[in-house]
Amino acid sequence: MTATTPVTAPATEPKRKQRFDEGTGRLAATLLSPTLLVLGVVVLFPIISALRESLFTSGQHLDANGFVVKGETFVGLQNYADIFRGETGTRFWNAFYNTTFFTVVCVVLETVLGVAMALIMHKAFKGRGIVRASILVPWAIPTVISALLWKWIFQADGVANALLGTQILWSTEGWQSKLSVVLADTWKTAPFIGLLVLAGLQTIPAEVYEAAKVDGANAWKTFTRITMPLVKPALLVAVLFRILDTLRIFDLPFVLVGPHKDSVETLSMLAYDEAFNTRFGPAAAYATVLFVYIALVAYLFVKILGADVIGEARAKKPGGGKGGGRWKRSNAVKASASAAVTVSAASGSGRNI
Amino acid sequence: MAVAGSLALLATACGSGDDGNSSSGGSSAGSLDGRGPITLASGKDTSGNLQNQLNAWNAAHPNEKVELKELPEDADAQRQQMVQNAQAQSDSYSVLVMDVVWTSEFAANQWITQIPEDKVPDLGKLLPATVETAKYRDKLYAVPMTSDGGLLYYRNDLLAQAGVNQAPKTWDEMKAACTKVLALPAAKGMSCYSGQFEKYEGLTVNFSEAVNSAGGEIVGKDGKPNVNTPEAKAGLEELVNDFKTGVIPKAAITYKEEESRRAFQDGKLVFLRNWPYVYALANKTDGSSKVAGKFAVAPLPGKTGAGVSSLGGHDYAISSFAKNKATAIDFINFMASEERQKANVEKTSQAPTWASLYDDAGLNKQFPYLAPLKASIQNAQPRPRVVKYGDVTAAIQQAAYDSLSGKTQPDQALSDLQTKLQSLITQ
To answer: How close is the nearest chain B Cα to the Cα of A73, in Å?
Structure first.
């Protein structure tokens, strides 16, 4: 009896409201649960299980009969400590240097070239469709295929040596193998930046340029004062994606130059090598270190340069949170920011092609 | 008869199963029982003949059909899929087509089943070197199906012009022949010799051949690394000096099988070390080869006499997690029979493991390289038979590559390699 009174007592207004809230909450939870479940299975579970795996080793000892002793041994942070020590340490820091070197050099080159490509593609001229299509061809080719393509170009009796009239052995250790990877990566991914910047360029209203013309701005001033600031959000997203991609570069140096080459060995290749030799614990540790490095770089990039990957979401909350304020400061025009978001969404699905 | 066989097997399995061995749980060795459909996990069949072979089995065994599971063409990718399959303890692969260097790793991890030698009646008729590749710690874990040995391809037209009538048997003879040939106007722009020296498995093969041919060894009979010796040094120095003096062209440091084959086909090399598959391609008269009909094959040369080839080829093993193992062993014996191997050689030119097939008159007519190939395989050495083969071959490649490219002195490279191998092989 007493139990029923609280339910029936606020019978009028508040109860109806409560029921409404409960209903939507439950509905939202029901509708979202499949998504969350799938995300949990395909994202959360692998990450946690990799983290767990990195604390174990297995299969590294033989018994008297020559059989591998089965079962996993908990070793704590041993796998992580081993990465930075002794011979593996030398190999790790070399790979770390290579990864960082490729990221810095390739992304800078790709950004410059990509912006140039976007400006060309944006111009109205006869045959623009063909130029656009041909610029985008490298991006459409899978990385492994383009790596093979460049491998043939760079082999001892290949096109590169025929053109240069020398015999540079590109795939041997040294600066030349690094250069070949930089060239091949730039060739393939500058169009990606070009594509994203082009999308940004197309959202800039023509009136802005007309106004600049009326004010008597020259081409350089127009570029630095109008084009660059307005295209910056799109460009930063593109550059961020390229940085994340290049930090985990694997297939290009692996196919173009080959595994176990000190000059081009990257962190992903180290993780692969460990896993290939069935040392899954250390492999998971390498992958985790790479994961942390990538996360750190992405965080710093967003913090320092104000690349705004989820800008629109923040913008929709007027005055909500510190993020909104920063967003307003770093982005002059809302339209171009939303363009960046659309483009980033589009590129997210196209990135692995 | 099949019932009797499996009963006998059951008995041996019970006898050997309970020896108090803590780690050999799960799939106990030798329990080859169960009949029914099986699968064959093999790399992509580029010859197109494997299905014909399987059809012959399927026609005779309608209740124990074998299904082909084609894996990628790349050997590393095949191994990876087989390892993954074993780690999931999946029964989807019954018989594994394994590269000869994987046996120790797969056997030590108990991913493949030990096969009692009396279950393979024709074992004694196979080339002994090939049978060695199927063993781990003197126990049989697979049955050799195809083999492969290195051959010396040489331009007999140019050698004849230079007045050399015999294939060289030693490195010195080879270089003397080169000096004469390269003095000919017809040999303008040619180099003497090449093998495969890119940093990959082929370098392990070529390095092993150089070391073994000079009387050295990488891993001794006792299973311990023994690479820091004068003999091994002589082998490695031979290659290093050939690079320095230009006997081997500079570009050869980037050569794999195909690059070196092209160089030979384009008439840039007098001598080439490669596998038998090159024979048919270099003899093509469709214009792709400039040396068709102008070359012959011989066993590899060595330091003081005939050289020692590294063994290639494939073995058939039974997955520990497979069902119907009795059918699997019957199927393997069927595929390893003289009749089936002969049919396979005729169609694909893959080197057989039966000694008698190398002396078959009809086959010799079709494949004139069979006689030198038999000599090559009979004298061949397997690459190091170690559990951590992936790490060992990477270490060998590192040492050899650094020496060939002049980064490290050979004796330093070998003593470093010795230390590295000791840490990898003592477990």
So the answer is: 15
Structure tokens at A31: 């509708």
List, for residues B123-134, the tens digit of each pLDDT value. 999 999 999 999
Residue A155 neighbours by CB distance under 10 Å: 20
Same domain as B256, residue B139: no
Confidence bin at B289 (pLDDT 50/70/90): very high
Contact A277 B25 (CB under 8 A): no
Q: Do residue B13 and residue B157 come from a single domain?
A: no
Tokens found for residue A19: 């029921």
Closest Cβ–Cβ partner in A59, A65, A156 for B24: A65
Give me the residues paired with residue A23 across strands. Answer: none
Q: What are the structure tokens assigned to A171, written together?
A: 């795939």
A56 contacts A281 by C-beta, under 8 angstroms: yes
- The torsion angles phi and psi of A329, rounded to 5 degrees, stand at -70, -40
Contact A65/B at CB under 8 A: yes
C-beta contacts of B161-170 below 8 A and 24+ residues apart: B161/B186, B167/B296, B167/B298, B168/B271, B168/B298, B168/B301, B169/B301, B169/B302, B169/B305, B169/B306, B170/B301, B170/B302, B170/B303, B170/B304, B170/B305
Indicate the number of domains in chain B: 2
Considering only alpha carbons, which residue of chain B is nearest residue A170? Answer: B254
The secondary structure of B61-130, three-state, reads CCCCCEEEEEECCCHHHHHHHHHHHHHCCCCCCCEEEEEHHHHHHHHHCCCECCCCHHHCCCHHHECHHH
DSSP state of B250: G
How far apart CA B325 and CA B318 sit, in angstroms, is: 7
Sequence-distant (6+) residues with CB within 8 A of B213 are B171, B235, B300, B301, B302, B303, B307, B308
d(CA B23, CA A24): 57
* Interstrand relation of A72-74 and B191-194 (parallel, antiparallel or unpaired): unpaired
Residue with tokens 């991913």: B111
Do B218 and B264 share a domain, yes or no? Answer: yes
| Summary mean pLDDT of chain B | 90
Q: What is the CATH number of domain A52-312?
A: 1.10.3720.10
Beta carbons within 8 Å of A309's beta carbon, 6+ residues apart: A237, A240, A302, A341, A344
* Buried b or exposed e, range B264-292, using 16+ CB within 10 angstroms: bbebbbbbbbbbbbbbebbeeeeeebebe
Structure tokens at A293: 């490095």
CATH number for the domain spanning B110: value is 3.40.190.10
- Beta-carbon separation of B388 and A68 below 8 A: no
Instruction: Answer yes or no: is pLDDT of A308 > 80.
Output: no
Chain A neighbors of B397, CB-CB under 8 A: 260
User: How close, in Å, is residue B3 to chain A by CA atoms?
Assistant: 31
In this prediction, residues B328-338 reach a mean pLDDT of: 96
Q: Is A167 in Cβ contact with B250 (below 8 Å)?
A: yes
Cα of A154 to nearest chain B Cα, Å: 10
pLDDT at position A66 is 87
Same-domain status, B400 and B419: yes
ipTM: 0.84
Q: What is the pTM of this model?
A: 0.84
Contacts of B330 (CB under 8 A, 6+ apart): B2, B64
Could you tell me the two tokens for A179? 């250069």
Tell me how far apart the alpha carbons of residues A222 and B285 are, in angstroms, rounded to a whole number. 65
For residue B29, what are the domain limits?
Answer: 2-148+312-379
